[in-house]
Amino acid sequence: MAADTGETPADGFGRVSRTKDVAFRLLALAATLVGIVSLAALLLNVAVDAVGWLDWQFLTNPPHPNPYEAGFLPALVGSIAIMLMIALVTFPLGVGAAVYLEEYANDGYLTRFIQLNIANLAGVPSVVYGLLGLGLFVGLFNIGYGSVLAAAFTIALLILPIVIISAQEAIRAVPDSQRQASYGMGATKWQTIRNVVLPRAMPGIMTGTILALGRAIGETAPLIMIAAPTTVFGLPNSFFSKVSAMPLQIYNWASYPQTEFQYGVVAAGVVTLLVVLLTINSIAIVIRNRYQQRT
Amino acid sequence: MSRDSTASLPAGLGRRDFLAAASVGLSGGLAGCTGVFAAEGNNVNIAGSSTVFPVTEAIASSFSEQNPTVNLSLSKTGTGGGFGNFFCAGRTDINNASRSIADAEIEQCGNNDITPIELQVATDALTVVVNPDADWIDCLTVEQLREIWRAGGATHWSDINEEWPDEPFELYGAATTSGTFDYFNEAIIGEEENHRSDYHATERDRTIVQGVQGSEYAMGYFGFSYYSENPDSIKAISVDDGDGCVEPSIQTAMNGEYTPLSRPLFIYVAKESLEKAAVRDFARFYMKRAATDLVSEVGYVPITEDKRDENIEKLKAAIEEVTA
């Protein structure tokens, strides 16, 4: 009796755990494949649709109601202009905030409150940021609805929490012993941050910023909220020019009656958007790796 | 450690260079802000009807090829949204409109010292469509249409004609911000009745097509150009305004047989905006192109050459008044 009860669970345990083991492995593999297969299917589908549409003329022409003459240039340039402005705004603000919170601020209630807020802001839906941008930049500061500046500032607000959090994590990862060593050499706090902490943390900060910029380039909802125009012709000629972005133009094309737009032109736009996104990411990764080797 | 700090010193200088570059960039940006008001004249901002949008888009596209330095923005906001939120508030120079400007809107523009100039650019035919499988229906009278679309009217097909199926309507129409809605409301429903509100309202014509394709008992209405792009997947209904059934086509709209659902399309130019060279050039360019094939390619009926000459005169007079 005692031997029986001792054996059965042992056997059962062994058998059940092996089946479970295999089953869980397969389940995990399936979970991985769902992601990869659907991504591959999407890319393949879009790439096949874009063949014959994505040509030089598409990249250099303004939009047109005739799908064979339609071009992407103003949206392409608009997106890049917005991205550059966003990088220029978020990088100093994000790193500055992270340095303050990690290196200077006391661990008091106020700091914890700010920290909590930043973490929560990272999860706020982008439409809400669009409304904020509409009220603040378009309404209060009156920098023009749908302008390059309004678009860049609004999206910069959106990705700022992500940049701050990742920069904080990168700064936190710098070993305290290095700071202490720097102080031991007689360096001031500013010298320590400049010469020890930031160079060490820079690759991590860059990674966070790149990922955030990747999110920014695909944002559409905040642009709709700040009344970015449906379509723009000609290139932005000032910071107050009305600007269109690639996702917005793609969304607009998807609503055109002709099936040539719904498949060919939209697919060509999507491929261009992906290529620009990957290019920005790889340039940034190259810069980051250079930095990593130098320090 | 000491090696570490010396190694990172050049990097620190690099960062300083970056900061310097960034501040140069920012001050350049500020300088740009002051320069912007000078460059403002190089922008043309347009909002308004999604029905007129493709016409303006086609013209703006060829204008842009000849004037690549002009920044021309075009939004779909619906006629009323365009007048109320953009044009009469002084935010845009031109408004696309699928109906004439309303008195309240003229007043709103007047309060902001904006004088709208009306220019007809094309004629549109509204099209009522049903699912191609709805084989019981080819033609509706204006009264029947009103009964279907008015508030508190018919709910089932059999309410209109006893031989038709005893199934509820599934209705897709233009959103209330749209000029298409205003026009349908005025032409079919009339002033005594209200347009029903329990229908799928949208600014996106594609949604209407998809809805009507999806159900045998669906019905919708939108601009003729959208139907002419999809003639096989949906069925257009002929309309009987008392003189027999007339089917919607470019022909019947141009000769005025397709009543009451053919309508003029306009652009409104703010007279004050004509002070800007870019707006003047664009408006002139638009008027010259409005009587060409460009409009019929988009699916609308072009205006006659007499009407075009009349527009050009009107524009010329306004420009002279502003620049004098």
Quick summary of this structure?
The complex is a heterodimer of chains A (295) and B (324). Chain A is mostly helical and 295 residues long.
List keywords for this structure.
heterodimer, A: 295 residues, mainly alpha, MetI-like fold, 2 domains, globular, disordered N terminus, B: 324 residues, alpha/beta, D-Maltodextrin-Binding Protein, domain 2, 13 helices, signal (chain B), PBP_domain (chain B)
Describe, in plain words, how this protein is organized in 3D:
Chain A is mainly α. Chain A is built from eleven helices and one strand; from the N terminus they run H-H-H-H-H-H-H-H-H-E-H-H. Chain A has helices spanning 2-50, 56-60, 73-104, 109-121, 126-140, 148-172, 176-184, 189-217, 221-225, 246-253, 259-294; one strand at residues 231-233. In chain A, helix 5 crosses helix 6 (148-172) and helix 10 runs antiparallel to helix 11 (259-294). By secondary structure, chain B is an alpha/beta fold. The radius of gyration of chain B is 26 Å and the shape is elongated. Chain B has two domains: 42-123 and 264-323, D-Maltodextrin-Binding Protein, domain 2 (3-Layer(aba) Sandwich); 124-262, Periplasmic binding protein-like II (D-Maltodextrin-Binding Protein, domain 2, 3-Layer(aba) Sandwich). Chain B contains 13 helices and twelve strands. In chain B, helix 2 crosses helix 11 (277-289) and helix 11 (277-289) packs antiparallel against helix 13 (305-323). The chains are: A mainly alpha (295), B alpha/beta (324). At the A-B interface, helix 7, helix 8 and strand 1 of A face helix 1, strand 1, helix 2, strand 2 and helix 8 of B. Strand 1 (231-233) of chain A pairs antiparallel with strand 2 (71-74) of chain B.
CATH topology of the largest domain in chain B: D-Maltodextrin-Binding Protein, domain 2
Named CATH architecture of the largest domain in chain A: Orthogonal Bundle
**Helix-strand sequence of chain A:** HHHHHHHHHEHH
Protein chains sharing the most extensive interface: A-B, 46 and 54 residues
